[in-house]
Amino acid sequence: MLDVFPQFLGGLGIAMMPTNLLYCFIGALIGTLIGVLPGLGPVATVAMLLPVTFYLPPVSALIMLAGIYYGAQYGGSTTAILVNLPGENSAVVTCLDGYQMARRGRAGPALAVAALVSLTAGVFATFFIALFAPPLAKVALMFGPAEYFSLMVLGLIAAIVLAQGSIISALGMIVFGLLLSMVGTDVNSGVPRMTLGIPELNDGIGFVPLAMGLFAVGEIVKNLENPENRVLVSEKIGRLWPSRDDFRRSAPAALRGTALGSLLGLLPGGGAMLSAFAAYTLEKKLSKEPQRFGKGAVEGVAAPESANNAGAQTSFIPLLTLGIPANPVIALMAGAMMIHGIQPGPQVMTQNPDLFWGLIASMLIGNVMLVIINLPLIRVWVALLKIPYQLFFPAILIFCCIGVYSLNNSVFEVGLLVVFGVVGYAFLKWGCEPAPLLLAFVLGPLMEENLRRAMLLSKGDPATFVTSPISAVLLAIAAALLVMVVMPAFRKTREEAFTEAP
Question: Could you give the CA distance from residue 137 to residue 324 in angstroms, rounded to a whole number?
């Protein structure tokens, strides 16, 4: 494993090039901004910025998008602590104790603990990726079409299990996403499929209008429907540096949160939000004074904040090693890589080592930048909280339309953006999480390609999926997950994992 350090240092050199430093800073700054401002999460922001990345070198583009993702985890804690309104989904549990600390005049230490544990978790997760991604990529090189197909089946089933809300709706989202991915000309036969006679659909549905419509436009309309009630607990942050007791209590919680978040980030459907919920629940169960939680316990801030940052970063490992996006933001990153002609998967490390190591090393720099951006500028972020959200939405919608139109100068794609915006809003109203749909849309063509290759190599024998040991194990795990998900005890645990009791 020690041989990865020279490569990591090489990546650090790439990440510290002036251009990449600039885009890392821009990503961290935008990530903090969208984390602070409730309403726009990293999925919507990354979706909106996809067209911009077309004009950037691939390394700079991915460094910026990654910075937005983990930067949003930092920024989300600010509004959670000061306004009791999570700027990002993963900061929901931070509200429980962070806001109570602020009400007791301890907003400064709560913000500082959130930033410091996020830095620690971010640095740990960076080295975790550097150490474990290359061996996993070598294992992935042993995969053939049958193994990849089975792995994607497992990924989609895991996404159903770990998705919020009803399992039936998550399954429906997966099926809908797979159907949308099949629209367009069949690459083998040249026959149009499900195009409804519309010539513009012969090339398939664009990834950008779909992602922007579902996540950006749908989210904006929903936020306009529900006016926010932002009440700052205090405009004076006061002393930032935590006390010795804060450090004593938060250090073990941060370590456990970091370890748990790093592992949960690897799961398909996992990432920042699942890690934060699980870390808070674990910390509360392990505590000798569980009654302090929900009343301003500093461990209740340290555990979820460290876990969400670690989970956000390690969720890059499945993408960079197996080509499987773990969550919607990573699916958008996969889309950005494919737009630049880079196929996500184990070959990224061998064919694009500069991108692989430059992206990983940039996370180290980005986390340091985020502490510098967040703590000294905390009063700037507090001032931003006073701006009404309604002032942002016209600019965001115009930006979405221009971004989609600039891709192919196509009015049709702007129309698709509007259609998917309406669909995304309807999904939100019905309580259907659209994240599994996006994962299925990205994985659909890859599944189809690997299924066809596997059937060609086996001369049409479907037994190839169970005669290969790796494929058989992956399908067995997928089947076990399906059995588990219908068991009442597991379903109850799954629902409790996303609804922490105060």
Answer: 12
Predicted confidence at residue 501, as pLDDT, reads 42
- Pairing state of beta strands 184-185 and 192-193? antiparallel
Question: Which among 120, 347, 103, 109 is positioned nearest to 243, based on CA atoms?
Answer: 109
Phi and psi torsions of 193, nearest 5°: -125, 130
Looking at residue 488, what is its pLDDT?
75
List, for residues 288-309, the tens digit of each pLDDT value.
Answer: 888 888 888 899 999 999 998 8
3-class SS of residue 192: strand
Residues with Cβ < 8 Å from 370, sequence gap 6 or more?
28, 31, 32, 70, 71, 74, 115, 118, 119, 122
Distance CA 491, CA 81 (A): 31
Token readout for 86 is 């999570």
Provide the token pair at 379. Answer: 């009063």
The token duo for 252 is: 């073990």
d(CA 91, CA 383): 20
- Paired strand residues for 193: 184
Question: 429: how many CB neighbours lie within 10 A of its CB?
Answer: 12
Bridge partners (DSSP) listed for residue 192: 185
C-alpha torsion sign, points 339, 156, 48, 72: negative
Element (H, E) at 185: strand 184-185
Q: Which of 125-139, 225-239, 250-264 has the lowest mean pLDDT?
A: 225-239
The C-alpha angle with vertex 416 and arms to 434 and 344, in degrees rounded to 5, equals 60
Q: What is the pLDDT of residues 353-387, one digit of tens each?
A: 888 899 999 998 998 898 888 777 777 777 777 77
In angstroms, the Cα distances linking 251 to 114, 222, 300 are 11, 38, 12
The confidence score (pLDDT) of residue 476 equals 93
